[in-house]
Amino acid sequence: MFGQFDISASALTAQRTRLDTISSNIANIHSTMGPNGEPSPYRRLFATFVAERTENGGAGVRVKSIAQDPSDFKLKFEPNHPAADASGWVKYPNVDLSTEYVNALETTRAYEANITAIETTKSMMNATLRLLA
After folding, report:
1. Exposed, middle or buried by CB within 10 Å (0-12, 13-18, 19+), for 11?
2. R_g over Cα of the chain
3. What are the DSSP E strand ranges found in 1-133?
4. What is the pLDDT of residue 77?
5. How far apart are alpha carbons 12 and 56 in whole angstroms?
6. Is 7 helix (H, G, I), strand (E, B) or coil?
7. d(CA 116, CA 75)
8. What is the value of pTM for the model shown?
9. Tens digit of each residue's pLDDT (9 = 90 or more) over 108-125
10. Cα distance between residue 120 and residue 99, in whole Å
11. Which of 29, 30, 34, 36 could pair with 40 as two cysteines, CB 3.0-4.6 Å apart?
12. Helix axis angle, 2-27 relative to 97-132, nearest 10°?
């Protein structure tokens, strides 16, 4: 029975990491400058998962990587912006707020589903112990 806890716990950890990347994307949706003040927009991050087998045959999931989205930056004509190029165009992060909200909702639902799986497993264990006692 502890395998089920491990499986759900691995999913909780993976979903928490995914939500962290989504939060970072939302927080940096208007970041047009790099850490040293150079014009360098934030690039959207996303987590990729991989299935994982344990020594006892259980399955789980872990974060394989946190990668940068290679899609194009958004361009806006703002000639007075500090990050504008010589033509007046500013590169904005390739983050879409609607997409991030949907991803956050999906991640939250997956997290809740794994909490429910843990609670169900715990209830089954308690019922089994009552039958054996």
Report:
1. buried
2. 21
3. 45-53, 59-68, 74-77, 89-92
4. 98
5. 20
6. helix
7. 43
8. 0.85
9. 999 999 999 999 988 888
10. 31
11. 34
12. 160
